[in-house]
Amino acid sequence: WMAVDGDVYDVSKFARLHPGGSLILEQYGGKDATEAFYEMHRKDVLLKYQRLKVGKLEGAKSVDSKPGEITKVPFFELP
């Protein structure tokens, strides 16, 4: 599992399909990966994978971004 925005996702089966490879997911396994996630993805990626959400971290902070917003990392996801 890993957490993004306070939500916990089971990425164990998804890891082999992840476009960036499974190694990066393994590095953040069991951790809050919010900051690293938003360095590479837009929030709407989370909407696509809601089926992987299995819970919520107690007391977790949420990143204030809206679906469709692009991160400050250039060229990672073009609209």
Structure description:
It is globular, with a radius of gyration of 12 Å. About 10% of the residues are buried. By secondary structure, the protein is an alpha+beta fold. It contains three helices and three strands; from the N terminus they run ββαααβ. Helix content is about 25%, strand content about 15%. The longest helix is centred in the middle third of the chain and has 7 residues. Strands 1-2-3 form a three-stranded antiparallel beta sheet.
Features:
disordered C terminus; 13% strand; 79 residues; alpha+beta
Per-chain topology:
Blueprint: E1 2-4, E2 7-9, H1 22-27, H2 34-40, H3 44-48, E3 53-56
Antiparallel strand pairs: 1-2, 2-3
Task: Give a brief outline of the structure.
This protein is α+β, with helices and mostly antiparallel strands and 79 residues long. 23% of the residues lie in helices and 13% in strands. A three-stranded antiparallel beta sheet has the order 1-2-3.
Parts with pLDDT < 50 across at least 5 consecutive residues: 73-79
What value does the average pLDDT take? 82
Number of strands: 3
- Major sheet: arrangement of strands: 1-2-3
Helix content: 10-25%
> What is the terminal separation in angstroms?
28 Å
The proportion of residues in beta strands is 5-15%
What structural category characterises the helix and strand content? Answer: alpha+beta
Estimate the global geometry from the Cα principal axes. Answer: globular
The ordered H/E elements are: EEHHHE
Largest sheet: 3 strands, antiparallel
The number of helical runs is 3
Rg (C-alpha, Å)? 12 Å
Oligomer type: single chain
